[in-house]
UniProtKB/TrEMBL annotation:
Name used for this protein in its record: Uncharacterized protein
Family matches, as Pfam families: RVT_1 (PF00078), zf-RVT (PF13966)
PROSITE patterns, per the entry: RT_POL (PS50878)
Coiled-coil residue windows: none
Organism annotation: Paramuricea clavata (Red gorgonian)
Source organism phylogeny: Eukaryota, Metazoa, Cnidaria, Anthozoa, Octocorallia
SUPFAM superfamilies: DNA/RNA polymerases
């Protein structure tokens, strides 16, 4: 028996594939084998082979996880316990030291043989001697009508004859010819945009008052002064009178300035000049300092340095899909031009707007041929390698150039060309899976990278706090990230990603001898050569920068580094977030985070990137006894201590605040402060209520949308802290008492609402967008995150599929509230929804918006029945008796505007005012006889006799007779009036069919607030039969509505007063 068992044991023994020894089972030897450990350690040679790596894999049907070394561990905690003593993990430290020594040796060798090309001496002498200043062209005006654009396109087709493809030797002349012909045509036919005034003129008239400017302008015209100075003074005077920036805050001048006209003429101009106090700051430094700074920033450092891909960066596999080297087609160029924003600024060197290429098909054809020629030549022409850069203030002192962000304005043809190049490169990289989209999510099409990263980080912090697990998060900041990209690094990165040589040569040609001039309101510098950096504003810069970062991501995405991440899912640990240059390192322990930071520091040494340690931060959570606490990790990068987030404080990543409890307190505070500031600022403006509501809905809600998207607030908090603030101001602007409902206000305009909604609904819309972005993400880990979080009770927005559904649900709730719960305040809505002509409701809203403030607010309070009638005043405890002072019946709203028998002369005056306008509209109809039951017109009794006397008769050529009967009553009686008038005039219609071939009865029943009943479609048919066009018909309807509203307002204001029989209202 012993011999047989021994034979069986030897038969099943296993051989180690590394050391060759025999074992009954490999067991612990699989992760303790010295030969395996030595093989995993990198050799000192450059061409070392990467070992086969295994991720921490979950074993089927168990809770075990395999370490990178191959050992099986029980769960996440067992894996972490094992990694403390794992020799393979400890071997990574030796690998780091080897890579660091190798990189240091390469850097020292490079630095001894190269130097910077910038010298700071004699900067002013160089500027004085340098004559290479840019020639800035004046902006040109563009056509406004389609006919003018069609004429321009025909002219370009005639002048830019394109009989054959453009030859490479004719490329420069063709580009110059196109620029000159297009610019000169618009300049000669439409003129120039007013140029920036001289500094002397600005200083001369800067502090002049309106009175002094008028006097100076008069003297300049009499003395035949320089036309440019006359135009400048005239424009300054107009700005003083019209532009809100120049208006003093005195009450007298506020009365003379019409805010409502300004906001209706230019909404966003009003917001920028009067509401938004964050005005852009201009540069306050001299040209010499500007040239000195940007020459130093853009100069080439170590121009001969070669960026050989180090051995620790794994090579990409050969491409499966080949690069499409065919030149762009007309359709591709057209698609790019159509996607470019029409508001983009043209380059001041040629002043060619993208609008020219959008509106002129032949220019797109010509540009396509130019681009195809440049593509074939593999060289970017010198005409395109000149640009201008403007300076946008970031923060800090305006006298320091480093506090400004340069934005490059390239010529439009170059933008289109680089966009074609970018699209071709991105398609190639995506098809071959060369770009990592699980980690790098910056500026990636069809990917909400910001939302995905912030949602994942929120989930990680919540998981660590709730499940008492350790997590360390480090945020990294690169100094002048885009500006530190070495041009030789670009070529190495392109080769690494298998970009063809032809494309690499084009990109190299683009960045060779590229020059840009910096322009401010005070000066324009000479051209400065861009020796390094990818310029912001260049269409290629984002993709190239992401490709540079991708070399590091390919390194750290390998399994041996990925296992350091925080494990929310056993199959997918999260260890690194990257959004362009914003990086976040996530791990479970300090040592693991430090190891990832060490790898990043080596990559920065290789790529010449600089880490700003003072802008970095670190955050930690760990278990203490039976609960989780925040602690201060001690991590280093480049031998400097990274600042730790203090206990109880938060850090900010991609615009979202994160703290230990994820309380969102910073976002809440910013939301409340922002809302209070803007709403109070709107409240102080002397604006019509409709314009105040417009500022709220279009400006304020858009300012809050980012906070609403990234935060996870509760609906209750939003209702209590945001809706209450908005409701308070809405009631104040519309003069709605506290007892009046706002449900009518929150309806859409076609249902007699004001088309606004509270902030909580905007928050629900933003959350719906964020949740749908996670749900439809191409990354499976994000979809898993959505599934996991969708089970939470706090997620209330997965039931919506779109923002329209959110709004529809909200308005449906308001309608149900008005119809089924608020009987009195919802009576208007309940009646008009049943009996009104729905297609005219939108016209009613436009008529309402054109009313003065007092009548506008009257209509709002009329709709929700909150006007100060005696009945309401009694309910509010102001009066003790609700009886009418004339007839002693209860004075309700219906009683005042359409019910009191004593008020019949008032109701007749309203009726006759509307009828008089209709008669004036129909009087000019040709071949017609008009009979109106009003003084000054022929009486209808001439035709109908004394038995029937309709309001209006219109006969056409004795063949057709229109019988119009007008009723103006309360909304609840709309259908009743229709039925009553139809029965009353049935016999008259029958009688008149004998003398007339056709008799048409127009039953025009409108409410006291100008709402048309469904039967009023016969009135529209009559207007159409009489030959009135749609515009004239809608004008007539708006006037009828306006007269009805104004007369009802006057009747209400005259309640409890004697009637003085005013003249008929005529507007």
């Amino acid at each position: 028996m012993i011999r047989s068992s021994l034979v069986a044991m030897l038969a099943i023994c296993a051989d180690c594939s590394f050391c060759g020894k025999d074992f009954v089972t490999l067991g612990r030897h699989s992760w303790r084998c010295k030969e395996k450990i030595n093989q995993d350690r990198p050799a000192n040679t450059v061409n070392q082979n990467m070992p086969v790596m295994h991720s921490p894999v979950r074993i089927s049907n168990t809770n075990d996880v395999k370490c990178y070394c191959g050992k099986s561990c029980k769960g996440t905690r067992g894996l972490k316990m094992h990694q403390r003593s794992c020799r393979v993990i400890h071997g990574l430290n030796d690998e780091f030291l080897t890579d660091l020594e190798q990189q240091s040796t390469e850097n020292s060798t490079t630095n001894t043989s190269t130097h910077s090309t910038f010298e700071e001496n004699d900067v002013m002498e160089n500027i004085a001697s340098d004559q290479n200043f840019p020639v800035l062209k004046k902006g040109v005006k563009l056509p406004k009508s389609d006919a003018e654009w069609s004429t321009a396109d025909s002219y370009f087709k005639f002048e830019l004859r394109l009989n054959a493809p453009i030859r490479i030797e004719d490329l420069s002349s063709s580009i110059t010819l196109m620029n000159d012909i297009v610019y000169n045509y618009f300049a000669d036919n439409f003129g120039y945009v007013e140029k920036m005034p001289d500094k002397e003129l600005v200083n001369k008239y800067k502090d002049q008052t309106v009175k002094a400017l008028k006097k100076c302008l008069k003297q300049l015209k009499l003395s035949n002064a320089d036309p440019h100075e006359i135009k400048y003074v005239a424009r300054t005077l107009r700005d003083k009178l019209r532009n809100a920036c120049q208006i003093n805050t005195t009450q007298n001048q506020n009365k003379t300035f019409n805010h409502d006209n300004y906001i209706s003429r230019n909404f966003w101009g009003y917001v920028k000049n009067l509401l938004n106090k964050n005005t852009c700051l201009l540069a306050c430094f001299p040209m010499s300092e500007c040239v000195n700074y940007f020459k130093k920033t853009l100069c080439s450092i170590n121009p001969n340095k070669l960026f050989c891909i180090p051995s620790w960066i794994p090579k990409l596999s050969d491409p499966i899909v080949n690069f499409d080297l065919q030149p762009p087609t007309y359709r591709q160029v057209t698609n790019i031009i159509r996607r470019m924003k029409a508001s983009g600024s043209p380059c001041p060197l040629d002043q060619l707007s993208i609008i020219c290429f959008k509106r002129c098909p032949f220019l797109r054809t010509y540009l396509t041929e130019v681009i195809r020629s440049v593509w074939s030549s593999k060289s970017v022409p010198a005409e395109w390698k000149k640009a201008c850069s403007i300076l946008i203030h970031k923060k800090g002192n305006t006298s320091n150039p480093s506090n400004f962000r340069p934005i490059t304005l390239e010529t439009i043809p170059l933008k289109v060309f680089t966009s074609c190049l970018r699209n071709a490169m991105f398609s190639f990289l995506t098809a071959n899976n060369f770009i990592e989209h699980q980690i790098q999510k910056g500026f990636t099409p069809n990917l909400s990278g910001t939302l995905e990263h912030t949602a994942q980080m929120t989930n990680i912090i919540n998981q660590a706090r709730i499940k008492q697990r350790s997590v360390v998060i480090t945020l990294l900041d690169l100094k002048n990230a885009f500006g530190e990209v070495h041009h030789n690094l670009i070529q190495s990165v392109l080769d690494y990603h298998h970009i063809p040589k032809d494309v690499s040569e084009i990109i190299k040609s683009l960045y060779t001898d590229f020059n840009t001039a910096f322009i401010t309101s005070e000066f324009s510098t000479p051209f400065i050569t861009v020796g390094r950096a990818v310029l912001q504003g260049d269409c290629l810069s984002l993709l190239i920068f992401n490709m540079c970062i991708n070399t590091f991501i390919q390194h750290i995405k390998t399994d041996k580094y990925r296992q350091f991440g925080f494990i929310t899912n056993l199959l997918n640990p999260v260890h690194w977030f990257q959004f362009a240059d914003d990086a976040a390192v996530i791990s479970g322990q300090d040592s693991e985070n430090q190891h990832l930071l060490n790898r990043f520091s080596i990559w920065c040494q290789w790529s010449n990137m600089i880490v700003r340690v003072d802008k970095c931060s670190t955050f930690g959570i760990r278990k203490s006894l039976t609960k989780s606490i925040q602690y201060l990790p001690k991590l280093l990068i480049n031998n400097e201590l990274i600042p730790a987030t203090k206990t109880g404080e938060s850090f900010r990543y991609l615009g979202k605040y994160f703290d230990f409890s994820m309380s969102e307190k910073e976002h809440k505070q910013e939301l409340i402060t922002l809302m209070d500031d803007i709403m109070s600022e709107i409240d102080l403006k002397p604006l019509h209520p409709k314009n105040k509501l417009l500022l709220y809905s279009r400006y304020l809600l858009s300012k809050l949308s980012w906070h609403f998207t990234v935060t996870t607030l509760s609906r209750t908090w939003g209702t209590e802290n945001m809706d209450s603030v908005v409701n308070k101001y809405v009631r104040k602007w519309l003069e709605i008492p506290i007892s009046g409902t706002l449900s009518n206000v929150y309806l859409t305009s076609n249902k007699f609402g004001l088309n606004i909604y509270p902030p909580s609904i905007k928050f629900a819309q933003c959350q719906t967008v964020a949740r749908n972005a996670l749900k439809t993400s191409p990354n499976h880990s994000i979809k898993d995150l959505w599934k996991t979080t969708s089970e939470s009770k706090n997620i209330q927005y997965d039931v919506y599929t779109s923002t329209k559904e959110v709004l529809k649900t909200f308005t449906s709730g308001q309608e149900d509230k008005l119809q089924n719960h608020l009987i009195l305040q919802g009576s208007f809505f309940s009646n008009v929804i049943k009996f009104s002509l729905s297609k005219l409701n939108g016209i009613w809203s436009k008529s309402q918006s054109n009313l003065p403030k007092n009548i506008y607010n009257f209509t709002i309070r009329y709709i929700n029945n909150s006007l100060p009638t005696r009945k309401n005043l009694t309910k509010w405890g102001i009066l003790s008796n609700s009886d009418c002072s004339f007839c002693l019946n209860p004075e309700t709203l219906l009683h005042v505007v359409a019910g009191c028998q004593t008020y019949l002369p008032r109701f007749t005056w309203r009726h006759d005012s509307v009828l008089n306008f209709i008669a004036q509209t129909l009087q000019p109809v040709n071949n017609s006889n008009l009979f109106v039951d009003l003084p000054g017109y022929k009486s209808p009794s001439i035709v109908t006799g004394d038995t029937f006397r309709p309001d209006l008769l219109l006969s056409i050529n004795s063949d057709c007779l229109y019988i119009l009967e007008l009723s103006v009553g309360y909304e609840s009686n709309l259908q009743t009036n229709v039925d009553r008038k139809r029965r009353r005039y049935e016999d008259l219609i029958t009688q008149q069919k004998k003398p007339f071939k056709s008799v048409k009865f127009v039953n025009l029943s409108i409410s006291s607030l100008g709402v048309f009943s469904k039967e009023c479609h016969s009135f529209l048919d009559m207007l159409n039969d009489l030959g009135l066009d749609k515009r004239h018909q809608y004008f007539t309807i708006r006037k009828i509505m306006s007269i009805a509203i104004r007369t009802t307002y006057y009747i209400f204001c005259c309640r409890d007063k004697d009637w003085l029989n005013p003249e008929l209202l005529n507007i």
